[in-house]
Design goal:
By secondary structure, this protein is mostly helical. It contains ten helices and no strands. It starts with 7 loop residues before the first helix and ends in an 11-residue tail after the last helix. Pfam families: TetR_C_33, TetR_N.
Length: 197
């Protein structure tokens, strides 16, 4: 019998909070049960297993991150939208490191749960929308989306791991990297003969 007041959403939020505190890799069913003051077995009435819980954390984080980015980029275009998008991405990664990690690793998520979750689909739509001002056609648009995601994820991961030991503040480099990314997007290289489509 499920404990009164315990829901899949409440278990997921407890797991997400724990992930931000100790890292996603340290989230266990036992640790979440202790946080909620219940026995481990009580959780299984709401989530199937640890993989299911981590998938739910990923979906929660995708929704949260997408809302933050959508609010930041609303009404903006070009360089202004790119900076707002990137800053919202970086701030979310700083504010919720465990949840952010969950959004970046492949998870086996219940297809029905995934179908009901707007975050992942909306994240893709937002990224393509933000890049529309750069007037890129396919396949360049998809390549640009991949470049932006790689650049932002790489920077915030290195920053979180203490990979920027130079005296120059990481925030200053971040601003210059966004300037460079904008310039590259504006001057996207043309396809050369023989390039893959």
């Amino acid at each position: 019998m499920a404990r009164a007041g315990l829901t899949a959403d409440r278990v997921t939020l407890a797991g997400a909070e724990l992930a931000d505190e100790v890292g996603l890799e340290h989230v266990t069913m036992s640790a979440v049960a202790r946080r909620l003051g219940v026995k481990d077995a009580s959780l299984y009435a709401h989530v199937r297993n640890l993989e299911d819980l981590r998938g739910r954390i990923a979906l929660l984080a995708a929704d949260e991150k997408t809302v933050r980015i959508a609010e930041a980029t609303a009404g903006r275009a070009g360089k202004d939208a790119l900076a707002a998008y990137a800053n919202a991405w970086r701030e979310y990664a700083h504010d919720h490191p465990g949840r952010y990690t969950a959004t970046q690793i492949p998870m086996k998520i219940d297809p029905e749960l995934l179908a009901r979750a707007p975050g992942p689909r909306r994240a893709v739509e937002l990224t393509y929308s933000m890049l529309r001002a750069y007037a890129l056609d396919e396949p360049d648009l998809t390549d640009a989306v991949r470049l932006v995601r790689s650049a932002l994820h790489g920077f915030v991961n290195l920053e979180a791991a203490g990979g920027f030991a130079h005296a120059r503040p990481a925030g200053d480099s971040w601003v210059r990297c966004l300037d460079a990314l904008h310039t590259l997007l504006e001057r996207w290289p043309a396809h050369r003969e023989g390039d893959a489509p």
